[in-house]
Amino acid sequence: MKFIVAATRTFEDxxxxxxxxxxxxxxxxxxxxxxxxxxAMTRLDENPRRGRTVPEMxxxxxxxxxxxxxxxxxxxxxxxxxxxxxxxxxxxxxxxDPTTLVAATKxxxxxxxx
Length: 114
Fold this sequence. Notes:
- The protein is α+β, with helices and mostly antiparallel strands.
- It contains 3 helices and 5 strands, in the order βααββββα.
């Protein structure tokens, strides 16, 4: 049985912000980053554990896929019991912000307890 894949507003906004900022410098690179992000998300519904655990967070449910030669992270939360993968954030590996992930994890934990 497949997982449902859903994106948070934070994830969607992050992708738009990163691609828009990159497009100011290079439209070709911005397009590649956007395409790589979409490609990374393929088959998460079939294999949600294919990404590695986010090293800074020490939570097996919080995982990441590296894109564009390791320059960006697609960060997502796996709720096995509900069979839901939630796309949480999209960040440069050089600008990691754990505060977004801590807040998202707490919110998703409370959602899964319902």
